[in-house]
Amino acid sequence: MTLLIILLAVLALIALINWGKVNAFLAFLLVTIPAGLALGLGPGQVLAAVQKGLGDTLGSVVLVVVLGAMLGKLVAESGAAQQIAAVLVGRLGAKNIQWTMMATGFIIGIPLFYNVGFLLVIPLIFSVAYQYRLPTLFVGLPLLAALSVLHGFLPPHPAPTALVVLFKADVGLTFVYGLLVAVPAVLLAGIFYSRTLRGIVSQPLTGFVSEPRPTSLLPGRLNSFLSSLLPVLVLSLVFSLQAILPPSGPLAPVLAFVADPGVVMLLSVLVATFSLGRGQGKSMPEIMETYGAAIRDVALLLLIIGGAGALKEVLMASGAGTVIAAGLQGTGLPPLLLGWLIAGLIRVCLGSATVAGLTAAGVMLPTMTQVAVNPNLMVLAIGAGSLLFSHVNDSGFWLFKEYFNLSVRDTLRSWSAMETIVSVVGLLGVLLLDWLLPLVSG
């Protein structure tokens, strides 16, 4: 009966969001409360679990998500991301366009949310394709595949960050493992698969092509790279020092403090405020307006994350974990594969990678205390599943279709297939790491 209630709750969530067009946060509440009552919790227990789930989850991720949005917005508006892309194209040459675009996607995708990154790089994709007389999809897919993979797999992006917190994973190890999985996924989906799509003709609509900023208005090259990549640079330095220095040394507490994702992002925003804000002639009110717009962009996303945390807490408070674990053992499916399947199913039904990942986490989390699973790999498995087969119910599908001016059929052949390849290769990479890590550590 417990499994049936959980299944009905997930189906109800899908129906409310997909067919009922209900706000995702409201849908989470409408599903969570009846599910808690049906699982045997009293009204007071349900409300307490909802409040605890909301508070714990938001308290853990709100700093990273909001500060990450601020940094991404400033990187985009200052022209730093455009400068990075221009440097890469100029240095690596025309013969390596696809590799250059893939590298650009990785660099831009680390600090930027997907939609911001997408809109930022569209003029670059179109201008490069025109300059070198190359098919637009041949140029654009490697970059967009990298943006998508980073958005789905790696902190400090919202869903992976929330999953790291929910599963109590290590953000550094998750990032490293995520890169190991992301590279082959982008190679296959972004570079090699795009070479099979030369027959698809993309003529972008004039109204969707914006002019890049004048070179004279762009920040300096070193400034652009350092300001945009400061979170990664700081974390890399801290993790290297932690690996070298003794864990009980006098610097250990300081390194642990600086390694906190919220502290890293706050430091990065403070530096960017002056390097990409004041340093580019912006006034403090202008910079604060940019940050305010960034907060508005992620406000609903934060509520969705909180709603998923409420569902997770209700499932845990009801004791559903034991039942789910028993059902998991009965299926014979490895937990990592099951997490990927649940996230993939919700992604296909709902269209939202964030909702898919967070909902799958809420369902899988109770099993983590019953079955031995590497939490870092579970984050990546669910992240990979959340990217499966983007189609007509996903806003990203239509964003890609309209900007590239493609038919629905050609968008399915290009964008949807690319996302599916990324998802499947990501799963295979996670399973391979799950097999290799015990051998290496042993």
From TrEMBL:
NCBIfam families: gntP. This is Gluconate transporter. One of its GO terms (cellular component) is plasma membrane. Pfam families: GntP_permease. It comes from Hymenobacter qilianensis. The keyword Coiled coil does not apply. Its main location: membrane. Belongs to the GntP permease family. Keywords: Cell membrane, Membrane, Transmembrane, Transmembrane helix, Transport. One of its GO terms (molecular function) is gluconate transmembrane transporter activity. The chain crosses the membrane at residues 25-50, 57-76, 96-122, 134-154, 174-193, 225-245, 251-277, 298-325, 337-365, 377-400, 420-440. It is found in: Cell membrane.
